[in-house]
Amino acid sequence: MRTPDDRWAELVAAALAGELTPAESAEFEGLRRSDAARAEEFAALEGVAGRLRQGDLGWTTPRDAGDLFARIETSLDRGASMAVGSAPRVPLARRPRRWVVPLVGAACLAAGLVIGANGASVFRAPAPSGPPGTLGAVEQIEVRDDIGGIDVSADVVAHTWGTEAYLEASGLDVGATYELVFVGEDGTEFSAGEVLGSAVPIVCRMNAAVLRGDAARMELRDTGDAVVAHAELPAV
User: Fold this and answer.
1) Rounded to whole angstroms, how far apart are CA atoms 40 and 20?
2) DSSP-derived pairing of the beta strands 177-184 and 144-145
3) CA 217, CA 165: separation in Å to the nearest integer?
4) Nearest-CA neighbor of 63 among 140, 169, 3, 145?
5) pTM of the model
6) Residues 23-39: pLDDT tens digits?
7) CA 27, CA 77: separation in Å to the nearest integer?
């Protein structure tokens, strides 16, 4: 049975996503002005949504990251579902369809913003876009394979706290350790972490403590520091 809180959650989700119709906008404003608690709730959520759009928290949806990011997203959503038991993956709420789902905890924050008291609408903030270095925007890069038999592709995302890579690799030696490294203009190196070679394609997200504007190159290296794949990053 639907409640007034369910309708409020729907309207808030649509308002934050910029998808209210004129009639819905009037309904939303009436509810917000008649209830100080709801007005306060919306103001707080509006602040969080602003930070999501700036790319310094949570998850951002790619503008056009192609097949690679879709596979990474599927992999991460599968892990989030396992972490919260039977909680399903919640699709992006876009007009004309809307979803109201139970609050399932922090794992939902990896997929979007959770709002509401008795029910929660889950949506994703509009994807940032712009030139290389735009906070939160998925930047497609050209990766060159330096060793035959492997296939590496990647996208990068600039954050206020560093640079993130969406990495996919296949053909790596099973069980062997590989390190992803960002290299600065002055040659300073910043590790984004390590992965193990697998018989199946590796799909992961890796992070380095270097601002996108300070990163000039990305390299995937084996334990002997040999570069197995690399990408020159566009200047910011």
Assistant:
1) 19
2) unpaired
3) 12
4) 140
5) 0.51
6) 888 888 888 888 888 88
7) 34
